Sequence to fold (282 residues):
Amino acid sequence: MTRTEALRAAVARLLEAGLEDRAADDTRLMLEHSSDLSRAGLISNMDRPQPADEAQHFEALIDRRARREPLSHILGKVGFWTLELEVGPEVLTPRADTETVVEAALAAVQDRQAPLRILDIGTGSGAIALALLSELPNAIAVATDLSQKALDIASVNAVRNGLGEQCILVRTRWADGVDPGYDLVMSNPPYIASAVIDTLDPEVRDFEPRLALDGGADGLAPYPHLIAEAQRLLKPGGTAVFEIGYDQGAAVLSLAQAAGARVQLRQDLAGRDRAVVCRFMP
Fold:
């Protein structure tokens, strides 16, 4: 079987598995991952017979994806911002929507060369903290998580992206025990209502850590605590940015305003509310 024939058969299988929107793209990425060739070399050798070891590896990857395992877990990595991050079942796979949080934080920074202090609460893979550090060369980030496995992955990602010396990883619940004095406080907390999780796509429902998904009965459980912690931890004039669900803007805005914050909502590329930006005045 040629690579082209193998590719077509794999696409058909993923379509049968319900991956209408991703079958072709995911299959090409898995074929590339299973081959020893460069992308250019693979393109120029698509009509040649697929080597036996490559075919076996490719088939194993397709088997996993047909069971709806996330592509990020299969490949072991995902692109976020300008970085490549290691991911797996221990952490939430960073989504493009979360780049809205990074953009909102950078918009609040007047001098990107300043020695800023950043706190990323519930860091997971380290995506938000590391994306900010990649743009703020003199900043230091403290990244917390309750999961040691998540912190281990964040540590690998920090080192691989040349940011290990700027990122301090702390195992704790939320920001318990963290002293104040931050210019930026960030978080992508769990914000999915408990009852909704079982209705999500299998990639999320069956493979993502529930700790990173479950936001309580209404999905809003983390926000009162995060808002209070931001008020405690921020320097005067500092900014907090929290990711929210697309339908949670009004509710989180109200919670932040009730705590005395000046609040702005930021939208993602689809025009949906995706981040709340809080500033507390002296």
User: Anything to note?
Assistant: The first helix runs from residue 3 to 16.
